[in-house]
Structures are given as structure tokens and as C-alpha cells.
Amino acid sequence: MRSSIAIVIMVSLMSACAGAGPTSEDEARKQQLVSEFGSRYTFEFDDIYLRAKSKSGTPTKVDAERIFSAFWLNDGKPRATSSLVYANMYDARGKFVFQALWEPKEQRIVFSLTEHY
Questions:
Q1: pLDDT in tens, 98-113
Q2: Which residue of 60, 78, 99, 107 has the smallest Cβ count within 10 Å?
Q3: What does the pLDDT look like over 17-59, one tens digit per residue?
Q4: How is the chain classified by DSSP, letter by letter?
Q5: Inter-residue contact 78 to 12 (CB < 8 Å)
Q6: Neighbours of 44 (CB within 10 A)
Q7: What is the pTM for the complete model shown?
Q8: Looking at residue 19, what is its pLDDT?
């Protein structure tokens, strides 16, 4: 019985967190990305991911780092006001290329070939 209650509470909390959606700051930063990178990328929110799709060709890691920094970082440190975690980068055909994320132990942006966690 206790384990059933614990499972219900855990699922409820996970659903509440997942359903939080983008914050107003997320929306504002997305608009900044569109202003700066909109000629080369489209942006959309997808659960805990910021999806950046190249309008032509393949995205670069330099662009991914700049996009990640502009969206998540304040003075080189991640902001805590977003439920989004990862920047997934896609080519012009919509194929996943790589992911940018913050590595807390190293205090830097790193790249992964995993699309979803």
C-alpha cells in the first residue's frame, strides 16, 4: 500500500514538473534567439528541449554553443528559471545532429549524440 501511494505521489510530481512548460523568460529568450539567429535557424520548445533546426545545411557546434549560452546562461552560469535543459540541434531536413547541455562538474557546455533522455 505504501509503495502504491509513493508511486502515485512520484508520478504526480513528475507530471506537474513536466507540465510546467516554458516560462515567460524562456519565451523572451526564444525571441532573442529568433532576432539573432532567425535567418539561419527555427526554434521551438519540446518538453525539456529547445529544438533548433537549421534552415540550410547542418548546424555547427559554434552556433550551438552561442545559442545555448544566449538561452540559458547569465554571466557564464546557468539560470535556474527554466524547465528546459537541452538544446537539440537538427539539420535542414529535420534529422537530429547533436545536443548541447551544461556539464555542472566541468562548469561548461558539452555536446552529446543522444537526442532524448
A1: 999 999 999 999 999 9
A2: 107
A3: 445 789 999 999 999 999 999 999 999 999 999 999 999 999 9
A4: -HHHHHHHHHHHHHHHHHTT---HHHHHHHHHHHHHHTTTEEEEEETTEEEEEESSS---HHHHHHHHHHHHEETTEE-SS-S--EEEEE-TTS-EEEEEEEETTTTEEEEES----
A5: no
A6: 10
A7: 0.82
A8: 54
CA atoms 91, 61, 49, 14: torsion sign: positive
The position carrying cell 548546424 is: 59
Q: Are 85 and 48 in contact (CB under 8 A)?
A: yes
The x, y and z cell numbers of residue 1, run together, are 500500500
| 66/84 Cα distance (integer angstroms) | 16
**By CB neighbour count within 10 A (0-12 exposed, 13-18 middle, 19+ buried), where does 35 fall?**
exposed
The arithmetic mean of pLDDT across residues 65-89, rounded, is 96
